[in-house]
């Protein structure tokens, strides 16, 4: 198996993980795809260190997270941790459309709908709430680690996460 | 609902969400980017991966540049002094330009007594160090490539 074939298998294996992390942090499928491409290109450039390493998944997770946070701080004017920017009430549906629910072919369509709603609600949160929330609940970072990663105070991070959870609960009252 | 309950609720509900799936377009995009990166021209890559001929040519060019700078340096300084003198003469400000001439003379003496005798040795040392680095880098690169090929 050549390097390219081996790398293709590597991408197939980890693409959902990298893309999933990116799309939840960035909230945009197009930007998540760009970020995932950048991460995999970095992995290829460090082929010997990364691709054959047993710690590849951890490296990809960390690199994806850093890439997304850099992207948010560099390219988004609306990225303001100390502001309370409002988001449109109805987010565009392309992100939710990209989701493949394991329930889509199952009997319990209601459950699947509820999960789509929650994913939409998460997507609808402003960046300053969604990002720390995703880092806490999906990336399993502590409050302090999130504060360090975002360059925000611990109190600010806790407040944003709390508001994010409250917003999710409000948006999906039937699930509370 | 207190904070802990809210955290538990959020954790439970968010963990139930299915993982987003990568779009079908991602893999071809990544592989195209990787192939483009792998096929980039040799001169945009690290120096250690250049063809040996170009490595030798670049070393020779740098050595030539340094040698030229050392050899031409005194001539440039002399020309600058001559120009300065001509400007002074033209401007008629001989008395005003005396400090400038003193500084230029001082610099010339400093060059001849301290720097010029050491210049040749410094050049030799620089070239030797450069060559040593080049040889070491090339050897390292060959080792890496061989390891990659053996894999």
- Distance between the terminal alpha carbons of chain A, to the nearest Å? 51 Å
Largest interface: A-B, 46 and 33 residues
In round numbers, the mean pLDDT of chain A is 80
Which parts of chain A are unreliable, with pLDDT below 50 for 5 consecutive residues or more? 81-94
* H-E string of chain B: HHHH
Provide the low-confidence segments of chain B as ranges: none
Give the end-to-end Cα distance of chain B, rounded to a whole number of Å: 58 Å
How many domain modules of chain A?
Answer: 2
Q: Major β-sheet of chain A, in short? A: none
Approximate strand percentage of chain A:
under 5%
Can you count the beta strands of chain A? 0
Provide an overview of this structure:
The complex is a heterodimer of chains A (176) and B (151). Chain A has 2 domains: 3-75, Rna Polymerase Sigma Factor, Chain: A (Orthogonal Bundle), CATH 1.10.1740; 94-175, Winged helix-like DNA-binding domain superfamily/Winged helix DNA-binding domain (Arc Repressor Mutant, subunit A), CATH 1.10.10. Chain A has helices spanning 3-26, 29-45, 47-50, 56-75, 94-98, 109-124, 127-137, 143-150, 154-171. With 176 residues, chain A is mainly alpha-helical. By secondary structure, chain B is mostly helical. Chain B has a domain at 54-151. Chain B has 4 helices and no strands. Chain B is elongated, with a radius of gyration of 32 Å. The mean pLDDT of chain B is 82. The interface between A and B is large, with 46 and 33 residues.
């Amino acid at each position: 198996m050549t390097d390219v074939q081996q790398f293709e298998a590597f991408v197939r294996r980890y693409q959902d993980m990298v893309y999933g992390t990116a799309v939840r942090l960035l909230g945009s499928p197009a930007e998540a795809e760009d970020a995932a491409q950048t991460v995999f290109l970095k992995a290829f450039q460090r082929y010997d260190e990364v691709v054959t390493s047993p710690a590849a998944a951890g490296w990809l997770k960390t690199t994806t997270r850093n890439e997304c946070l850099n992207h948010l701080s560099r390219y988004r004017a609306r990225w303001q941790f100390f502001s309370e920017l409002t988001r449109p009430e109805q987010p565009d549906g392309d992100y939710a459309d990209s989701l493949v629910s394991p329930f889509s072919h199952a009997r319990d369509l209601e459950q699947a709908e509820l999960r789509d709603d929650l994913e939409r609600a998460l997507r609808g949160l402003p960046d300053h709430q969604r990002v720390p929330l995703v880092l806490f609940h999906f990336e399993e970072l502590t409050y302090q680690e999130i504060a360090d990663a975002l360059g925000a105070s611990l109190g600010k991070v806790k407040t944003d996460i709390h508001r994010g959870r409250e917003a999710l609960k409000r948006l999906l009252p039937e699930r509370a | 609902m207190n904070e802990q309950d809210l955290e538990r609720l959020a954790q439970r509900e968010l963990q139930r969400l299915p993982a987003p799936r990568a779009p079908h377009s991602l893999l071809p995009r990544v592989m195209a980017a990787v192939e483009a990166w792998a096929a980039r021209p040799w001169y945009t890559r690290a120096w250690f991966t250049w063809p040996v001929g170009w490595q030798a040519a670049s070393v020779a060019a740098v050595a030539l540049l340094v040698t030229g700078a050392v050899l031409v340096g005194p001539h440039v300084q002399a020309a600058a002094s001559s120009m300065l003198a001509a400007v002074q003469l033209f401007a008629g400000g001989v008395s005003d330009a005396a400090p400038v001439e003193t500084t230029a003379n001082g610099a010339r003496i400093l060059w001849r007594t301290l720097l010029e005798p050491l210049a040749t040795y410094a050049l030799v040392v620089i070239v030797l160090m450069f060559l040593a680095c080049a040889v070491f880098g090339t050897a390292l690169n060959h080792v890496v490539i061989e390891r990659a090929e053996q894999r």
